[in-house]
Amino acid sequence: MKILAEPRMLWLFGGVLVLLVLASGIGWALDRTARGEKARAVIENLNARIRAWWVMCAVFAVATATGGLGSILLFGLMSFVAFREFVTMTPTRRGDHRALFWAFFFFIPLQYWLVAVDWYGMFSILIPIYAFLFLPTRTAMSGETEKFLERTAKIQWGLMVSVYCVSHAPALLMLQIPGFEGQNALLLFYLVLVVQSSDVLQYVFGKIMGRRKIAPDVSPNKTWEGFLGGILSATLLGSALWWATPFTPLQAAGMSLVITLLGFSGGLVMSAIKRDRGIKDFGTLIEGHGGILDRIDSICFAAPVFFHLTRFFFT
Amino acid sequence: MSLAGLTGGLLIGTTRLLCGPQARWVDCQPSTRQRIYFANHCSHLDAVVLWSCLPPPVRRLTRPVAALDYWGGGGLRGFLAREVFRSILVDRSGADPRAVVDHLAESMGQTDSIILFPEGTRGTGEELAPFKSGLYYLSRKRPEVELVPVFMQNLNRILPKGEILPVPLFSSVSFGSPLRAEDSESKAEFLDRAREALLRLVEP
After folding, report:
1. How far apart are alpha carbons A200 and A198 in whole angstroms?
2. Of the candidates B20, B22, B165, which has its C-beta nearest A101's C-beta?
3. Structural domains in chain B (count)
4. Which of A50, A274, B46, B184 is the most exposed place for a label (fewest CB within 10 A)?
5. ipTM higher than 0.90?
């Protein structure tokens, strides 16, 4: 509970609470005025998204309040479900069964255990080296060679994006930043807040003034107006929250710009995968949003780079 | 709550966690009327996953059909088959398929629905095997009962034949439009139609 008593954390949570109340109010007002079938569908989806945001923020708050272990557990579970969603839509074969079992029940828990015990050296190579070498060996032992390279590559990619990348978010807790000891939960909150608000702001700007599509074949909802509006406003927000980080306002602006741009890349890449597989969402777990992977695609890309920039320049 | 009820609840909870089954009622609504659910079979999980997708009042009236040689013994298997699932056990080595059908029709009585795997045995999940004729004879014998096609996807990837450790992917269970054997229909025609009905439920 110590970290929740930290006044800056309370300010952040208070701010999010105000935003949620505002969003729900706007959603309610729009719901009363929207006419026409298409507008109604958009508003209904918007309100489902806002309701889901309440739940997600509550879960995140509880995880943060229970200290480091709660956050590690939450992100570990998210990785587990995200990898489930990823493999479900990947055409693996019978011969991958044992390798997948190892990935789910050995490598995912181990990766997060390494975060929990602060073993940075092993944390950073477990999946890129040990899983990378072990899993195809296990698959090869099964004897099924059809599309072997494709299958092993997809499993490794899924593990990298949904486990390795995501685990860098709670790994922020193990950084030793001089003058910022014991406050790393703020940094995790900061990352999630900036990345997710960038997603929301890109959506809002896109819906209000989106005209020119960036990559219509990949994601019809991504427009230049949404991109610029979202990235700039989220970067502004991130700079304005410098007091919750070890950064100066200018450094916070740079960090925010980098992580919002990466968040955008994450959304774009995961959309390309979904188009390739012919699906709209990775799952159905979060009403209005799709699956876990649909919600955290931006964190997947932003977390490792934010982690390494912070580690390189501030520890 | 009885031990069987408790075990059933536990099994359903575990199955839901493990297989994340999404029930899709495509051209069919849940109902307590008497039905024969016929499904593809490629995993030990099939019956319990299908069962878990039925609303509790329907589930209480629905009994899976299971092989006597595998589930008929004592111990845990026997307990699960008899007490938890209230399975109807059939002799699949049987020389007389008519006797099996009579036994099924009789066990269903006037209230119970059943879950049947007309392929007869578990496949790899890649192809749907030809159906055994029992489904046809049963529909002839009980023409008032609806036959509901149920296609289960991904369970062969979660727990394939020959594996004991599951991989927790998500699965889906699709219920299609009910059908019955028509008077004018031959056995082969009907079994083809039933098989087609199942294949139509495959998600891309």
Report:
1. 5
2. B165
3. 1
4. B184
5. no
| CATH number of the domain enclosing B124 | 3.40.1130.10
Q: Does the residue B204 lie in any domain?
A: no
Best of A87, A94, A275, A294 to mutate (most B CBs within 10 Å, chain B): A94
Listed in sequence order, the residues at least 6 apart from A20 whose beta carbon sits closer than 8 Å to its beta carbon are A50, A53, A54, A57
Strand partners, B150: B39, B175
CA–CA gap between residue A77 and residue A9 (Å, rounded): 23
Best of B22, B157, B173, B202 to substitute, by most chain A Cβ atoms within 10 angstroms, is B157
Query: Could you tell me the residue range of the domain that residue B112 belongs to?
Result: 3-199
Residues of A with a Cβ under 8 Å from any B Cβ are 84-85, 87-88, 92, 94, 97-98, 100-101, 104, 278, 283-284
Break chain A into its structural domains and give their ranges: 1-66, 68-174, 178-315
- Reported as a single tens digit per residue, the pLDDT across A126-158 is 999 999 999 999 999 999 999 999 999 999 999
In a domain, B112, yes or no: yes
Cα separation, B59 vs B114, in Å, equals: 10
The one-letter code for the residue type at B39 is A
Taking alpha carbons only, the member of B87, B140, B150, B91 closest to residue B120 is B91
Nearest CA in chain B to A88: B169
